[in-house]
Amino acid sequence: MSDRRVVFLDVDGTITTYENVIPASARRAIGQARSRGHKVLMCTGRSKAENPPELWSVGFDGMIGGNGSYVEVEGEVVMHQVLTAGQCRRIVDWCHARSHEFYLETNDGLFVSERFREASGPVLRAYARSRGTEAPEGAETELHGSVYGGELYRDDVNKVSFILSDYQDYLDAREAFADMRVGTWGGRGEKALFADVGLADVDKARAVRMAAEHLGVRISDTIAMGDAKVDIPMLEACGVGVAMGSGGEEIRAMADYVTTDVDKDGLCHAFRHLGLIGDPFLEN
Hints:
It holds the Pfam family Hydrolase_3. It comes from Thermophilibacter immobilis. One of its GO terms (cellular component) is cytosol. This is Cof-type HAD-IIB family hydrolase. This protein is α/β, with parallel strands linked by helices. The protein has 2 domains: about 5-80 and about 205-275, HAD superfamily/HAD-like (Rossmann fold); about 85-200, Hypothetical Protein, Haloacid Dehalogenase-like Hydrolase, Chain: A, domain 2 (2-Layer Sandwich), CATH 3.30.1240. About 30% of the residues lie in helices and about 20% in strands. The protein has helices at about 25-35, 55, 85-95, 115-130, 165-175, 205-215, 230-235, 250-255, 265-275; strands at about 5-10, 40-45, 60-65, 70-75, 75-80, 100-105, 110, 145, 160-165, 180-185, 195-200, 220-225, 240-245, 255-260. The strands form 2 sheets. It has an 8-stranded mixed β-sheet. A 6-stranded mixed β-sheet has the order 8-7-6-9-11-10. The longest helix has 15 residues, at about 115-130. The chain is globular.
């Protein structure tokens, strides 16, 4: 096994809390790991535009976005797969016909539907509550990178997320878009808050393998950390899989190591356990 490791980190619930707070210990641990020659990449469902400056300021060696539709390593775009203009139009028209509020995830912005701002506030607060945090009434819940009044028929879309009114909406979407990948997020099973629609052959596992190959690193020298069911493929693909303590039962059951919650220095403890850093509270 090489001394040089490549670490793929989910963002929400792994690097940040569900209120978008980055623990100081996580920031410090990522910096120390990189200073020791390890590569650290985000691997997230977010598209590039959704990452605020505070997250980028942590410092990363690349990003996998859109649940695997985009791979960027050390400033080079390795792969980028997007929905065709026809696929995007189908999804937009379907959402409009069913009165679903939605947003189109691109690397240049999150292009939101006409009433998304009003509809999303309560849903995003519920999302935070489902992960053990609480966004106060009236707190800002807007997604970073949101663009209002933009063109909704596009050819640069990584995936589309829409608000679920009930679980049947997800089942109907699976039927309507059988040629694409349809998932849920923001909750488990019938309590899910959002569904997303993307390309059928996109997932985090394929993306991490591409990034590792680009870096010339064996897959046995890779580490993945996450907290959600969508992260399981990348944990399975990597040499070591780490689940956050706040993660779901499925990901904790299959992980090689379970660390503490994100807001209890979970990322830092995992980095220390895996030998990526020294004692983070003693080293400068």
